[in-house]
Design brief:
This protein is mainly beta. The protein is 7% helix and 35% strand. Helix 2 links the parallel strand 2 (46-48) and strand 3.
Length: 241
């Protein structure tokens, strides 16, 4: 380095050994090999949920959702979580074209996942067929263990303010057996079109409703593939169109 002097501190010049060590640890712009995980808020097209601030996974996902493009949406990847997790407040999705990749983990909560009315093309994707594992059909994959008095996953709102087209939900368990209230439900869609529910397991109590499709004001409906509803007094309640 005949024309450049590198410094470790304001008054201390760096010798050749120090410079060689530092440059040897750097990843070249043309590519290289890492010996450990690469962490960043965003990697490629996906935002990494575990890199966002928040007290629990719900708060971290909410922080990620606030970062995606308001015009084009984006991907919030929460798959870098395992074990038993908690969600201390409602998770509200109000940006169109948003995808949330859920972890192979159990999320215990009394709070809701809400897709607001008029928010188009939202996808919630779990990690295993019907959210289960080889050891259990109701745990081990993506499990939402809901203990509240409302609905675990709610799309639209009961004021029927707007159509909410294009909701996708797959590969998860929604379990409301921990909720004693008769008003607790697994899933409700208000005035929601082009629903795509796939490979889901709804498990609840005999005084509860598993799925409500409320088409008041337009219609609610779509495609349902490999959806099991067990334990509820009412499996599917269809209202309006």
């Amino acid at each position: 380095f005949p024309y450049t002097t590198l410094f470790r501190s304001t008054l201390q010049a760096a010798d050749k050994h120090y410079v060689d060590t530092e440059f040897g640890a750097a990843v070249p712009l043309t590519g290289g090999t890492l010996s450990g995980p690469l962490t960043a808020t965003q990697l490629g097209a996906a935002y990494q949920v575990d890199q966002f601030p928040g007290a629990d996974i719900g708060a971290k996902i909410q922080a990620c959702l606030s970062t995606v493009s308001a015009s084009y949406g984006g991907i919030c990847d929460a798959r870098n979580f395992t074990g038993s997790l908690s969600m201390g407040s409602n998770l509200t999705i109000s940006t169109a074209n948003t995808v949330v990749l859920l972890p192979c983990a159990s999320i215990a909560t009394a709070h809701q996942i809400i897709v607001t009315a008029g928010t188009r093309n939202v996808a919630l994707r779990g990690c295993a067929v019907r959210g289960g594992s080889a050891a259990s059909g109701s745990q081990g994959g993506t499990v939402l263990a809901y203990s509240g008095t409302a609905t675990a996953v709610e799309v639209g709102d009961p004021s029927y303010a707007a159509d909410t087209p294009g909701l996708h939900l797959d590969n998860a368990v929604i379990n409301t057996t921990g909720a004693t209230s008769a008003t607790a439900q697994g899933f409700v869609a208000y005035r929601t079109q082009e629903l795509d529910l796939e490979s889901l397991y709804f498990l609840g109590n005999s005084n509860q409703t598993g799925v409500t499709l409320d088409g008041t004001g337009n219609y609610s409906g779509g495609t349902f593939r490999d959806v099991q509803v067990s334990g509820f007094g009412t499996a599917v309640s269809a209202i309006g169109h």
